[in-house]
Structures are given as structure tokens and as C-alpha cells.
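REVIEWER CHECKLIST
Item 1: Sequence provided? yes
Item 2: Single chain? yes
Item 3: Sequence as submitted:
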Amino acid sequence: MRRELLLLSCCVVIPSICSAQEKSDTTMVEKKAERNVMLNASDANAPRYIQIGLPSENVNVYENGLPVVYSSYIHPVSAHWRSDGSLAEVGLMNPQESAIATGNIAYSVNSFSDLGSNMFKGILNYKGNHYGMHQFDLNVSGPLAKGWTYALNMYQNFDPGTFDLKFTNYNDRTQIYKGALTKHWGNRG
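Item 4: Structure as written out by the authors:
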């Protein structure tokens, strides 16, 4: 019984090792379609939690490859991350990509900060509603010196909510400030 099991495992392992050592001269690169990140109907500032039946602790949001929060039960994602003008790219990882990249089996938001540009640019976003919400963010970036770029961002949210809170003026009062100073070495961008 043991010898048969060993022989069977050798028959499976040896062909897979041999096929793994074959080299290919060409590499196929598949361009993926754009994927959107939905906002939750109960919260206009945080990504939607999508239950896929597998246990996951929280909504997984990554900025520059690192988790925005390590536990959303202690620190809500919307208190530390907003999809604002400071982000150069926001994408969505499916459960397979997220499991490989982060170890969590869930849909994940993957975002990358604006680290500066070789030309001056500015972005101003403003949003309001008839309940008295005012939300704006301002991002400026540009060159400083040869090989140096900067990016500065300010996010402000004044949201009184849809009902009168007796203990505070705002249901959501968030301030986020970010800055980046980048040195480009040689020809690497």
C-alpha cells in the first residue's frame, strides 16, 4: 500500500516538474477590461462590502500596496481612506488576485497615490447636496528641481447628515492631508 502510494505520487510529481522546466519563448499578456469600484448605498464614502460566502474580516482597501487599516472593526476604512484627487489610480482586485497578493479571499480595492508629475497640475473636486453637505478635495503636483517632484492633497468633508443630531453638527466631519516628495533616479521614470 505504501509503495503503491509512493509510486503514484512519483508519477504525478515527475511530469509536473518536467513540464515546469520547459521554457517558452513568448509570453502572453492579457489586457483586462476596466473594473469599477462601487460605493455602498449606506455610506457614500466607503467601498461596498460584497459578501461572497467566504469569511473575510473586513473590506480590504490597499493604498500603494499596504492595507489602509488592518482591522475595520477598530478603525473604519472611511476614516482613513477616501477616493479623492490624491489617487492616481483606483482599481478592483477579484478574489483570486486578492488571495495571491494579500492573503484575503474577497474583492479588494487597490489604489495608488499621485507621487508628483513633471508638469504642474491641479485638481479641485467639489460635491454638495440639499441637506447641507460640502465635500471638497484639492490636489496640486509638479516638479521641484531636476529629478524631484511633489504632490500635496487636502480632503475636507462637512456632512450634517439627513437628520438633526443633537450632540454634534456633522454626521461626518473628515479631514485628510497628504504630501509626497519623490526623487526619480536615472532613466526609471
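Item 5: Key structural point noted by reviewer: The first strand starts at residue 39 and ends at 40.
Item 6: Recommendation: ____
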